[in-house]
């Protein structure tokens, strides 16, 4: 591959081509791509100074300042970082924001160092526009089936087991409920949308047919789901996952509480119970108004009893009580109300095994 600019965005994303992003770190943090690595031409302060000079004195003065700020050892460090990137990813390409001056300067310095790699035509802005257009095109086509089911029924397990599916909660790094946040931070909104578009693009590349997506609300944690997709989901055919209350309680206890408690214990066993209590209490406080004062106080009391039983004899029974009350009194009524709006579009209802067999038969 020569140093000519690349405009085949589809291939870049489908092939997961390593991307070197030469924008400043602040730009990268605001939005990037899953396979991108930030190796800036200018750091944040340098970019800000150059931008100010451009506004006040024009392009030539800004370019001159840029070369003054990034020279000598600083320039050598930047070029060394680029060299290391392309030694690790010989097939990689690079981009700036619009595929303009920063890409040209980067390419020139790389060539001076004996490295001949192409940049992306139109840069980040063009790739982002491509992914947004792809995402809206997929929504317009309407090729989705919605996986519904009450909280704790195991919808994520079905999504992971069925190859033609999209895991929006996985992409958002959040399970979707008040108890759903992970230890790791959620991605930026733009990063989520980029990853979603790429994942859907890969599904389309496999051939025609609907993609299975879990029924989601407007927000997954702090990540917003596209309103156009939510409108599509309301009208799409649904598949409903069934599971007993007992099975749901067990799954939620394991996935939301026991696993978190185990992670806390690995960090500091003496604080694990207190950290678990704080996590649950914070989640309950977030939905306090919708729970109502009396129900909230009852659940908080059950939590305190549960922490005491957990620390004294490693007993999880009070957590099962808390979870069942949340399901029966809070989550299930909300699910039932939402389900009634779409029950005339249900294609199939069954357990995880039955749903996977039904999907395979089609």
UniProtKB/TrEMBL annotation:
GO terms for biological process: tRNA wobble uridine modification. Residues 13-136 form the Rhodanese domain. It catalyses: 5-methylaminomethyl-2-thiouridine(34) in tRNA + (2E)-geranyl diphosphate = 5-methylaminomethyl-S-(2E)-geranyl-thiouridine(34) in tRNA + diphosphate; 5-methylaminomethyl-2-thiouridine(34) in tRNA + selenophosphate + (2E)-geranyl diphosphate + H2O + H(+) = 5-methylaminomethyl-2-selenouridine(34) in tRNA + (2E)-thiogeraniol + phosphate + diphosphate; 5-methylaminomethyl-2-(Se-phospho)selenouridine(34) in tRNA + H2O = 5-methylaminomethyl-2-selenouridine(34) in tRNA + phosphate; 5-methylaminomethyl-S-(2E)-geranyl-thiouridine(34) in tRNA + selenophosphate + H(+) = 5-methylaminomethyl-2-(Se-phospho)selenouridine(34) in tRNA + (2E)-thiogeraniol. One of its GO terms (molecular function) is transferase activity, transferring alkyl or aryl (other than methyl) groups. InterPro entries: AAA_SelU, P-loop_NTPase, Rhodanese-like_dom, Rhodanese-like_dom_sf, SelU. Coiled coil: none annotated. The keyword Transferase applies. It comes from the Bacteria. It holds the Pfam family AAA_SelU. The active site is at 96 (s-selanylcysteine intermediate). Belongs to the SelU family. Involved in the post-transcriptional modification of the uridine at the wobble position (U34) of tRNA(Lys), tRNA(Glu) and tRNA(Gln). Catalyzes the conversion of 2-thiouridine (S2U-RNA) to 2-selenouridine (Se2U-RNA). Acts in a two-step process involving geranylation of 2-thiouridine (S2U) to S-geranyl-2-thiouridine (geS2U) and subsequent selenation of the latter derivative to 2-selenouridine (Se2U) in the tRNA chain. This is tRNA 2-selenouridine synthase. It comes from Reinekea blandensis MED297.
